[in-house]
Each structure stands twice: as structure tokens, then as C-alpha cells.
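Comment thread on ticket #2218

A.B. wrote:
> Attaching the input chain for the structure job we discussed in standup.
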Amino acid sequence: MKKIIKKWQKKNNIKSFLKSDGKNFLQFFVVFTAIFVALSVIILQTLTTGIYKSTDESIKNLSENHEQLVMNARHDYDIATFFVHEVLPENSENGENAITHIQEVSNFSPNQTTLFYDKNGHILKSDNERVTIADSIKFRPATINKLRNIIVKNPYNGADLLYRTILLKADLTGLQTNIAYIQILVNVDQLADSLARSKIIILTTMIAFWFISLGASIYLSKWSMKPVISAYEKQKNFVENASHELRTPLAILQNRLELLFQKPNATIIDQSENISQSLAEVRNMRLLTSNLLNLAKRDDGLKVELSEVDKKYFETIFDNYALLAENSNRQFTSSVQFFGKVKLDQALIKQLLTILFDNAVKYSDTDSQINIKVEKSSQSLTITTTDNGFGISDADKKKIFDRFYRVDKARTRQKGGFGLGLSLAKQIVTACGGKIDVQDNQPKGTKFIVKLKV
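C.D. wrote:
> Ran it. Output below, let me know if you need it in another format.
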């Protein structure tokens, strides 16, 4: 049974992954694959070009001097095969120098071979090795001046040999010879073996990293989806909570209005309670919709308009709070400890202070103490709001800035709270470039500390 359950969970996890992260995973995987393929092609192309570079330069340098190649032939081949008659007498001083030069340039590398063709493309042969090589090579006029690789049959019945070769049209002005074409061949078997091993290592490494990219793609797809899923969950909770908050006053309104229809002959005085409760719910709905609109505006981007204010700005606000506290049977005190002027957004800071004051009133009993202190340091303005109310648990401290979250739903609903105030407060503080923190007030109550850059 446990195996069946695990199998079912695994199947559902795979389906869930394919639905939520599959597209992102595919995008990451395709990008990684394209990167590794392009990187492999570039590395292999660079390696192939580089490994043959010295060989190609040697062939190029040799191919630029056809006369030296012919001198090689005079030393390595039967001279009569190539020349109609000797141009230089052997006993002359120039002839002696020429023979010496022939000996110097004839064996330019043990891995190199030179073939000569007449004007009809027939090879001029000499030793057995050249005969065997010539039998394995087809004369191709279309490949003149083009470097290429060819495979030649091994004269010793071993593995086939790989040569790097170029076919040249002989330019031997002044020499009476039947050589019309020259072909230079350089054995590159060792280079090819080295290149093959390097390719295997590179491809193996790339394939290994390609498999690693598979895991990386899965991780990145899940990681990139986290903020999307979080935003979706927040939006879902927001809609559910907003619908719940609107459903309650709408239900009360409906019941009150239905009661009015049950007594059509009753006077306004008789139905004053129903009308009063209906108006109260309408005010709650208006407040809720206003807060929702404010939240929507904050999400679209909050524009902060700074202006200079002095301590009188705060004192005026606190005088009004003192009257509100007196009406709600709370004791309110305040202090503003700074001189000169500070720059801040007057409307937003006033809304922030009102939210913090209102929150302190809601979460404290009558005769409670509420205090707001404003003080300025060298680079920041600190606003501290304290009360000796019910306090907030450590678990609630982590969530009180979330939308619609309320520590005591019964109390806040009774007093008209929707759990939106502190969310607005945090958005205001963040927009102003500050931080807000909540702590316990000793011996009881709550302390909100706001630090703003000024």
C-alpha cells in the first residue's frame, strides 16, 4: 500500500512539475544545450586549426619556393627523370654551390614527401615509397593551392596514413624540365591522434556538463517560479480575504433591508436601529474599498514628493491625536527631538503616523498609555510608537505586515479593522527608503520603530 501511495505521489509531483515548471525548465535546458553545442564547436574548430597551424605554415613556406623543391628532386630522384639537360656544370663554382645548397634543403623533414607531375598529370616516380603513395593519390587539378587532408595506403601493410597536402602548379622559368605540378605531403598521423584524443576529452567533458545543466535547469526553473508562485498565492489570498471582508457587510445589509420590507408601515424612528446598522456597514465597505484602492496605487509605484518640514509639522499632528486619544479614553504623549528642518513626504508620513496611532488604539484597553517619539540623528529620522496594550506574539510579528492579517480578528472586526493598515505602513516606509520594525514594549505592549533617511 505504501509503495502505491509513493508511486502516486511521485506521479503527481511529476505532473505538477510539468505544469508549473516544465516550460521554464525547457527554456533553460535549450539555452544550456545551445551554449554547450556552440562552445564545443568553437573549441573543436580552434583546436583543429591550431594543431595544424605549424604544419600548414611549413607547407606554405616550402610551397613559395618551387626551385628549392626541384633541387630536392635533383638530390632524391633520378635527375634524368626531371631535366632535359643540366643547367649548371657540376665542376663550376656555381655548380658546387648549387650541390651544397641541394644537400642543405633536400631533407627538410622526415615526415614530408614531394611528388612531381608532368603536364598530363602523370606522376614522375622514383623510389618504392613514392610509387606506393602515388598509387594511392588521384591527381585533382581542382584542388590546386588548397590545403586538405588525404588518406594514403601504408606501404608496409599497416594502418592507413593521414597526410596534409597541397597541389601546386610549377613555376620553373629558366629550367628545362618536364615538371608541371608539384604536390607536398606531410604526415600528420601523430597530430591526428592527438586531435582525436583531445576531441574525446572535450566532448566527454561537454556531455558531462550537459547532464549537469539538466539538473541546473530543473533548479533554475523552480527557483525562477518561486516569486511567481508567491505572488500568485498572495494575489489569491488577497482576493479571498477581500471577498470575505465584503461578504460580511453585504450580508448584514441584505438582512437589515429585508427586515425593513417585513414592516412596511413602520416609521423611520421604529427602524432607526436597522438603518443605523446599515449605514455603519456602508461606511465599513467604503473604508475597505478606499484601502484596497490605496494598496493598488502603492503596487503601481508610489511617487514620493519631498519637502522641508520642521518640528511644528509633527506637533500639529500630535495635537490632533491627543484629542482622539482623549475621546477614546487613552492617554497620549509625544515628543519631537530635533532642530532645524528635514525632508520628507508630508502626506505619506502623516498617513503612516495615523496608521501606527490607530493600530495602538485598537490593540490597547482604555486608560492605556500611547507614546510617539520623533528624533533625528546625523542621517536618519527615527519614529517610535509604543503602547502598553495586548502585545504581539513572535509568530504574529512575522505576518502583521501581510495584507488582511489580523492578530485578533474578533477585536479588529468589532472595531472596524481589516488588516490593511500595517501593510500600507510598510509600503510607505519602503517607498521612502526606510525600514519598519516591531518589538515588544516592556513590561507589556508593542513598539513600532520606523527609520527614515533624511
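A.B. wrote:
> Thanks. Noting for the ticket: Residues 229-299 form a domain with the Helix Hairpins fold (CATH 1.10.287.130).
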